[in-house]
Write a structure and sequence with these properties.
single chain; about 325 residues; seven-stranded antiparallel beta sheet; disordered C terminus
């Protein structure tokens, strides 16, 4: 079997309100727009950035100014969000992490256990999970796992549905709170510094003392320099692991999910999928032909591309 190389694949990123792929929207990675999400459990908006992006939709920017400014000059990707819970949820219940639909133990490369120990020791001590089980997962409490957490205002409703205020967006999210919402953090003695806040919420009693309030906007940004989507590799301090050779048609995705650990309610899902370049080209040609009302042999096939404007990169 021929050796797999990174240039044989493109990355596709989708986001939606649950695990069902039919509910997902293609994310314009590094582009100006966020993906709106609405479900029974939350109203949300998601923006994804990937450094050295090589993926779909065709013509996507390869980078974003996000990666040119501190503290992100070494980061490889970002999942930023605004989220309004539809019911109040205990801070001890809301999780963020990865899970999989089927067992992956036979596809895990040597060194996986070492990698997990490094992540738990050096990066996210609150991370728990089992990649060798029938339902593989790695979750951490949102409060201690998310890199940046911001408490926003109460959200307005339109036609009975919550709306994220127009002045809030997924660009430049900073740790802290908006105006009088700072008092909410102070009341619970939550440190102003992100690293200290993450450490604070490693204690279960602190998480139980916090609530994600119904109708309030919460913003977060999850980022790190450890997953290189350009080379499909995990690069940890003193340890690197390529996963390209362990990818097949049954396991070609990395899925991030925010969910309630007690009820299983899913708030949103973001999926990173490796697509063979040939398949992506065929899909693009077929989609363009359909959009143009063409059938086989009619007209020239033209690839539908995402065309960023000068001010799109944000």
């Amino acid at each position: 079997m021929a050796k797999k190389t990174a240039d044989q694949y493109l990355l596709r990123v989708t986001a939606g309100p649950d695990y069902d792929p039919s509910t997902h929207t293609l994310v314009a990675v590094n582009g100006p727009t966020s993906v709106p999400i609405s479900s029974n459990h939350c109203t949300a908006s998601i923006k994804v950035r990937v450094q050295n992006y090589r993926g779909l939709p065709h013509g996507s920017p390869t980078t974003s100014p996000y990666f040119s400014a501190d503290p992100h000059t070494h980061d490889q990707y970002s999942i930023a969000f605004s989220m309004i819970p539809h019911t109040t949820v205990s801070g001890n219940e809301l999780l963020f992490g990865n899970d999989f639909d089927r067992p992956i133990r036979d596809r895990l490369p040597p060194g996986t256990e070492t990698a997990f120990k490094i992540v738990k020791w050096a990066i996210d001590p609150g991370l728990e999970g089992d990649l060798y089980s029938d339902k593989p997962h790695l979750y951490g409490p949102l409060l201690s796992s998310i890199n940046v957490l911001r408490v926003g205002p109460k959200a307005p409703k339109k036609d009975g549905k919550y709306e994220i205020p127009a002045h809030l967006h997924e660009d430049g999210i900073d740790e802290g709170a908006d105006g009088e919402e700072e008092e909410l953090r102070k009341e619970k003695q939550i440190p102003e510094d992100a690293a200290a806040r993450k450490k604070h919420f490693l204690k279960e009693e602190h998480r139980k003392d916090w609530e994600f309030e119904e109708g309030r906007v919460y913003q977060g940004d999850f980022f790190n320099p450890y997953i290189d989507f350009n080379h499909f590799a995990l690069k940890l301090p003193g340890f690197s692991l390529s996963v390209l050779g362990y990818i097949d048609e049954k396991q070609d995705t990395l899925r991030y999910v925010m969910k309630n650990k007690s009820t299983g309610d899913v708030f949103f899902v973001v999926v990173f999928m490796l697509v063979p370049k040939e398949d992506a080209e065929n899909e693009s040609s077929a989609a363009t032909a359909t959009a143009n009302g063409e059938t086989a042999g009619q007209g020239d096939e033209k690839k539908e591309e995402y065309q960023p404007k000068d001010d799109d990169l944000d």
